[in-house]
Amino acid sequence: MAADRLAARVVLTGLASLTGLTGLTGLTGCSDRHEPTHYCDDESSLAIGADCPIGLESCQTAVFDATRCVRRSDGESPPVRVITEAQYDEELEGPAQDADAGVEDARVDHWDEALRLLRLLEPETDRSEAFQEESSSRVAAYYSGFYRDVTIIDRQDDGDAEGRMRTLAHEYVHALQDTDFGLAERRGRFSYDDDNIIALSHLTEGEATLRAELTYGLLRSIPPESLHLEDHFARRVAGIKSYVASHASPYVAAKRSLHYGTGPLYFAQVFAAEGSDGVDDLMAWFPLTSVQWMAGYHARELYAAEQPLQCRSREGPDGYSAYATDVLGAAVLFAFLSSERTGGRYELASAWDLALAWRAEQYIVFAADGDDDHTALIWQLRFATEDRADEFGAAADDMNAGWTILQDGRELRLFAATDPDVMETWIDEARCEPDRAADEAAADADD
Ligand SMILES: [Zn+2]
Predict the structure, then answer these.
(1) Distance from the alpha carbon of residue 175 to the mean position of ligand 1, in angstroms
(2) What residues does CATH 1.10.390 cover in the chain?
(3) Rounded distance from Cα 135 to ligand 1 centre (Å)
(4) Is residue 290 classed exposed, middle or buried when 0-12, 13-18 and 19+ CB atoms within 10 A define those classes?
(5) How far is the CA of 100 from the centre of ligand 1 (A)?
(6) How far is the CA of 298 from the centre of ligand 1 (A)?
(7) How far separated are the first and last CA of the chain, in Å rounded?
(8) How far is the CA of 379 from the centre of ligand 1 (A)?
(9) Quick one: which of 128, 228, 248, 303 has the most CB atoms within 10 Å?
(10) Which helix (H) or strand (E) holds 415?
(11) Burial of 351 per CB tally in 10 Å (0-12, 13-18, 19+)
(12) How far is the CA of 255 from the centre of ligand 1 (A)?
């Protein structure tokens, strides 16, 4: 039952996003355009003659004033604290994580196990460990939604004042986003599944990264057109694609890094076409699937409404129960297709193209009942065309991982299990049924 309810929510979200979020936009309360305010009347007065060290209060004030002007926000400057690298490491390894580890050891995390089955997560690693490793070394500053403050990590050997000014401006944008619409609130409202979470990261990181570049330009008197933003972010996207493809845990790399490239690239495309008003509008009216962000602003018309999957299996192997229902989305699909670890046969560009043909999905993880720790999963996908579905089926077959793939037109179901003995009976009995719950939910939503 719980799995079905989740399924209905998942599909509803997909529909909402693909039909342009009708009815939802007004709820965010930030669709009004911000007019430049008095502190921004004379932009040239905000320029400073040279890069400044962000540990200094005067530098922080200059960066904040410029950020607020670029964003046309009324927000107040958040408190800023400066800590040493050693303090930062200490905070990262705080007692809270030890407690987490104890809880996780108690049971097998079937979500992690399913990712390992798809070769998206390194063996012997869990997601939280991998995410933590991914974030620890590179951070120069961060915004805490809990404390509503910005922390700067004072790295003595870091000579990159320019990069650190951008980072501070980026964190200030997060603080202003939080004042505007509530970061946690928006996450709570729109994060129905993994794909939505990635899409929301595109929104918040995309805006913060774009505005940070513009802020730096304002501070150093560089006009926006001289920043070559689209080229700059397109190069970043290319670098991130390679990074994902070579990462030991492609799922973690895709989820943690892709939006820092595709998010700002989308925003830069909007900024080039529609200026700051377009960027403001995007903050209120935003894509909720990663495929839309990845495809970019110029392809936004291509993603029309999709119906729920027509063929779907919901039963696990005999003696298994549904553990989680989710949507991984096109970003993770790209990781799957391009990764050296999965044995993906694709060049980056072809993997990207095929991932952009993602149209609908349901991902279900099953856990064996009782003391048995086995995991099974069904990854059900619809592609834009039958040819694209064929292509995915062939690629997944090539990976030779003991998966079974059943195709029905544009849709495929990939079955995988840690216990190979369950496969045969499971596949034989797997039925293909349209998703009634989702259809009903969609009909309700139309009323
Ligand atoms: Zn950020």
Answers:
(1) 10
(2) 33-94+139-302
(3) 12
(4) buried
(5) 24
(6) 24
(7) 24
(8) 30
(9) 303
(10) strand 411-417
(11) buried
(12) 14
CA of 204 relative to ligand 1 center, distance in Å: 7
d(CA 411, CA 392): 10
CA–centroid distance, 64 to ligand 1, in Å, is 15
Tokens 């259809």: give the residue: 439
Task: Round to whole Å and give the CA distance between 22 and 368.
Answer: 40
Amino acid at 338: S
- Assign a CATH topology to domain 33-94+139-302: Neutral Protease; domain 2 (1.10.390)
| 252-276 pLDDT, tens digit each | 999 999 999 999 999 999 999 999 9
Q: Which two tokens stand for residue 208?
A: 């913060």
Pinpoint the alpha helices (H) of 326-385.
329-338, 348-355
The C-alpha atoms of residue 232 and residue 284 are separated, in whole angstroms, by 25
Give distance in angstroms: CA of 168 to centre of ligand 1.
Answer: 10
Q: How far apart are CA 213 and CA 107, in angstroms?
A: 45
- pLDDT tens, residue by residue, 64-101: 999 999 999 888 899 999 998 888 888 877 655 444 44
Instruction: Report how far ligand 1's centroid is from the alpha carbon of 67 (Å).
Output: 14
* pLDDT exceeds 50 at position 28: no
- Three-state secondary structure call for residue 198: helix
Helix, strand and coil percent figures for the chain, each rounded to 5: 55, 15, 30
d(CA 415, CA 38): 60
What b/e readout covers 408-425, taking b as 16+ CB neighbours within 10 angstroms? eebbbbbbbbbeeebbee
Distance in Å, CA 447 to ligand 1 centroid: 38
Tokens of 381: 């996908």
pTM for the model: 0.86
Q: How many helices (H) and strands (E) does the chain have?
A: 19, 8
Residue with tokens 């007019």: 35
